[in-house]
Design a protein that fits this description.
The chain folds into two domains: 6-252, no CATH class; 254-332, no CATH class. By secondary structure, the protein is mainly alpha-helical. It has helices spanning 18-42, 54-79, 86-110, 120-131, 139-151, 164-167, 184-202, 206-212, 218-228, 230-252, 254-273, 278-294, 298-303, 308-325, 328-332. The protein starts with 17 loop residues before the first helix and ends with a helix. The chain crosses the membrane at residues 21-38, 58-77, 89-109, 115-135, 140-161, 181-202, 232-252. It comes from Devosia limi DSM 17137. InterPro entries: HGSNAT_cat (IPR012429). It holds the Pfam family HGSNAT_cat.
Length: 333
């Protein structure tokens, strides 16, 4: 396929690539699915640890990579075939910044120990500004910078970047406590890959063909519509999900059921490891669970902060439950 110079595609022609909207629509749906299961995990409706499970982490990072790649593509489609449309750029950029600040404020009140101080929208705002410098730069330079930005975190890290004040750069050794962090290294590199890909496509004979693709069918049109409104949907989807999941957790209290299940599972494993028969362990652990709830010992068990009074109750409970499975202990008391 022969590469054509950028000028062969008119700078004034700014067709909307429906294919980009469709991909963005799929990405926003995937993001909603991830956050739904994150919320369900956080409120203990499901046992999976969505925030740390390797499969879920890979899923989340894949979605993020698609979004960042599309940021680069969007920069080129919107501003890369002529003069930068500053009014349009600043209007969208301002909307992103306001959204980022809103997320920081909201998460500060909801999750003060892990609030979002440099999440997806914060990164998009910064990377959009930085990406403008590569709309006209030689492709070899953009490719070189992208390679360095993506690869460097694999070879360099420093404890300094464990601190929140510097963690947004990306060279931490231990990830800081936050619900969302999209650092410059390697995030900017993925945006630059999108810039490079879009510039290559627009300078090729494929550009008019891709621009001519129109969504056919309800699903494709829906995905394209979601893609066009992806920024707004990103802002509102998590408040909507939390507005549904949180009240449901107050009604159904899944955390209590999950806590009981965790207690029984751990107790059963420890009991059987000690050589006691599984059936006897089940009886013993069920007795222990009833004692924990009756004596309100959950805090002592979960935190490990056991007072003298708690220890007295735990010892009495252990003797009572042991007597259930070993009746001869009753004769000794």
């Amino acid at each position: 396929m022969r590469a054509l110079p950028m000028t062969d595609y008119p700078a004034t022609a700014r067709p909307r690539f429906a294919l980009v909207d469709i991909v963005r629509g799929v990405a926003i749906i995937a993001m909603v699915v991830y956050h739904l299961f994150w919320d369900l995990s956080y409120f203990r409706f499901i046992a999976a640890d969505v925030g740390n499970d390797p499969v879920w982490v890979l899923f989340a990072r894949s979605i993020l990579a698609v979004f960042l790649f599309l940021v680069g593509v969007g920069l080129v489609l919107g501003h890369g075939r002529g003069d930068i449309r500053w009014r349009s750029f600043w209007r969208r950029w301002g909307f992103v910044v306001v959204g980022a600040l809103a997320i920081s404020v909201a998460t500060w009140f909801a999750f003060p120990q892990s609030f979002v101080y440099f999440g997806v929208l914060h990164a998009i705002a910064l990377f959009s500004l930085m990406g403008l410098a590569f709309l006209r730069a030689p492709l070899w330079l953009a490719a070189g910078v992208a390679a360095v930005v993506i690869a460097l975190p694999f070879f360099y890290s420093d404890a300094l970047f464990n601190e929140k004040a510097w963690s947004w750069i990306g060279f931490w050794q231990v990830p800081p406590s936050t619900n969302d962090l999209v650092p410059v290294f390697p995030g900017l590199g993925v945006v630059l890959l999108g810039v490079i890909a879009a510039r290559l496509v627009l300078s090729s004979a494929w550009a008019p063909r891709l621009a001519a693709i129109a969504p056919a069918g309800r699903l494709a049109r829906l995905l394209a519509w979601l893609g066009r409104w992806s920024l707004l949907l990103y802002l509102v989807h998590q408040p909507i999900l939390l507005g549904l999941v949180y009240p449901a957790s107050l009604v159904f209290q899944p955390q209590l059921d999950m806590r009981r299940a965790d207690f029984l599972r751990s107790c059963q494993s420890t009991c059987q490891t000690g050589g006691t028969a599984p059936g006897l362990c089940t009886t013993y652990c069920q007795c222990g669970l009833e004692g924990v709830e009756t004596n309100r010992l959950w805090n002592a068990i979960e935190t490990g902060m056991v007072t003298a009074g708690d220890q007295t109750l735990l010892d009495a409970q252990n003797r009572q439950c042991s007597a259930l499975i070993y009746p001869e202990l009753n004769a000794r008391q």
